[in-house]
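Section 5.1 Outputs to date
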Amino acid sequence: MWHFFRGLISALLARGIKVLTITPPGSYAAALQGLGATHVAVSMPRFVNPVNDVAMCFALLRVFRQEAPDVVCNITVKPIVYGSLAARLAGVPYVVGMVEGLGYGFLEEGGRKERMLRAVVTGMYRLGCRLSDRIGFANPDDCNQFVRSGVIPRRKALAFRSMVGVDVKCFSPGALSLDVLDHLRSELGIPPTRCVVAMVTRVVWSKGVKEFVEASEEAAGWDTPPLFLLVGPLDPDAPDSVSEAYLRERASSRLVWVQTFRADLKEILSVADIVTLPSYYREGVPRVLLEALALGKPIVTTDNVGCREVVENGRNGFLVPIHNSRALAEGIRSLVESKQLREAFGRHSRFKAEAEFSETIVVDGVMSRLLGLPSRA
């Protein structure tokens, strides 16, 4: 709520609209209240648990009856289901949802377990869409898939290209001093002149961790191998979590893993010369790629749902096939070996961020198309 939607919250407050945020208990409640929003904490278990989910639904119902909102906007699958149900029972006049990517349950590959999970999640979405007036999707692929499969009627479905955007003033080339970046390079053990390829992600297989590691191994034979910087904590609760042993065994002078949670991601992305995300996860539009765009970085990512929205192949980066570490390595190598190409791609990334993904533009579209408020464009 804080990292992705504070731009939307601030824009609503600026229009004189009272905003109530409902999240699990956490350290960012005070920050949300600092924006001017009212905050209520409700326990929201991450995975399906019938007893806890019913408790969550009743807790939301109590909040909605007490606050009597005019609009309820639910984000992600469980709030879309239980939040929509609670809102209808409370008599809320307008209920909408945001699908920020379909997630692990909709990966193309997988066995019987994954197919069962997809069936359960699809059923949940079907119910949530039936209870909602409109649903916004963070990319056209997810929207079209749900319409084609009958999960949602076309009249209710809205396709966006990101529903959060990026703050192009905060994330801008040159926003950080050289002293700050030099200090971070020193902290991470990066030599001053070494080219850096950064991947910032949850450390799960579907984000392309294996392909990133294998690309770093491909680079062993290059004349000037870059430093492959993987930044992100383990996610042991995820069904496709990567083991710590795997990364420890593959550590090298070319591959550095920063496994602690970092709040300075703008600084880390600024240190990078190239940003990559070889994901085959069912992304919305990855926030880290939007931030890389705004910082004027060349990007190598997969021709995958959500990721492809950010890159014009051959103009601000390269799109490579999923599960293809060789293609990933070759895309990175083209940029490592040409500073001129990196700079040209970086300029187009910045242009694309300002023209298409600026938080101001994106949020205005969400408020007018999804929330039904007059556009200020």
